[in-house]
Write a structure and sequence with these properties.
eight-stranded mixed beta sheet; 18 strands; alpha/beta; 28% helix; single chain; 3 domains; globular
């Protein structure tokens, strides 16, 4: 079945890391890491509703300024998630500018910032019209791995080590609902807004024995169905996809264990492979993975597809060698 979201790297593997996920049939997207995002059109950037940042090294966070500039003066609630110290980092960015004119904006634009700790989240809100000065102290919430949840998907994270706290992420779809148009026609119905309401009822786990009413249209009268009966007749329900993102982590027993648990059985894993294995001493000093280590993790986690990225600039022109080292090791590890 066709997936409902489409992940892709923001830049080429030698460029700043980042993964952009657009949603099918929606003017919406989410993004993982905010390095250089100039390759994204303004239209794509303005689709972003949630931002997930692994850590705030410059190549993972410098794109915050462009994101902020494009959203100023627009009606939008933007949600940002990052590791320990993230709230201070965002406030530092915001305090670098003067906001004396934003009180004239009639649009509501707000940043909702979440900081991930091992066992809790800290959250704080910043309203544009108030000059991004927070009105209250940060609020703490319990946390056990589930970072964000909505009817169609969930985002999970683990705190990893890169010489400082760094987050790994996994996005899991609940399930796919594909509509059999011929079956809809056989029931004397027309495709319309009720399809979205029908899918939402399934995603929200509405009582399967409840009544589902399809409103009247130009060529139809109102009809009522039992939700589960309608689903059996017009829907094909299949498992959703899982996409994971790992960037900037040291190759340690603890990190590997956490990563494998987080990304296990992913349909698609995006994972850093900064150095060739012959340079693993440099990778260790810098807290990065080698291509071989990335392949081993992907194979151990039994992911279906792996895309390496975040190659060190020293390998300009050698990208295929890095990719081959990842894939050869992945294929080997997958068979073990």
């Amino acid at each position: 079945m066709r997936p409902s979201f489409l992940p892709r790297l923001v830049n080429e593997p030698l460029g700043d890391p980042g993964m952009f996920i657009s949603f099918l049939h929606q003017k919406r997207a989410i993004i993982f890491d905010l390095g250089d995002i100039h390759s994204l059109s303004s239209r794509d950037v303005l689709k972003i509703s949630h931002v997930f940042v692994t850590h705030t090294h410059m190549d993972h966070f410098i794109g915050f300024d462009r994101l902020l500039r494009l959203f100023l003066g627009r009606d939008q609630d933007l949600y940002l998630y990052g590791p320990k110290g993230f709230i201070k980092n965002v406030e530092g960015k915001l305090s670098g500018y003067s906001w004396n004119l934003v009180g004239n904006y009639s649009n509501h634009f707000a940043l909702h910032v979440f900081e991930v700790h091992a066992d809790h989240l800290r959250a704080r809100d910043y309203i544009c019209q108030k000059g991004f000065v927070p009105a209250a102290k940060a609020v703490e919430h319990a946390f056990a791995g589930l970072l964000h949840e909505e009817p169609t998907l969930s985002v999970f994270t683990r705190v990893l080590d890169h010489g400082l706290p760094c987050l790994g992420f996994a996005v899991k779809e609940r399930f796919h609902v594909n509509i059999k148009k011929a079956a809809v026609a056989r029931l004397g119905l027309e495709i319309g807004p009720w399809i979205k309401e029908f899918k939402e009822a399934l995603f929200d786990h509405q009582n399967p024995d409840s009544k589902f009413e399809i409103p009247s249209g130009k060529k139809q009268i109102q009809k009522t169905f039992v939700l589960k009966d309608l689903a059996e007749q017009i829907a094909i329900i299949t498992p959703g996809q899982k996409v994971s993102y790992i960037a900037d982590v040291a190759y340690s027993e603890s990190n590997v264990e956490k990563i494998v648990e987080l990304v296990k059985d992913s349909d698609h894993l995006f994972i850093e492979a900064s150095f060739l294995d012959k340079d693993k001493d440099i990778a260790e000093k810098k807290g990065h993975l080698t291509a071989r280590q990335a392949g081993l993790i992907a194979g151990k986690a039994k992911v279906q597809r792996v895309t390496p990225f975040h190659f060190s600039p020293r390998y300009q022109g050698q990208e295929l060698i890095l990719e081959k080292e990842v894939m050869d090791t992945y294929d080997y590890a997958l068979k073990q």
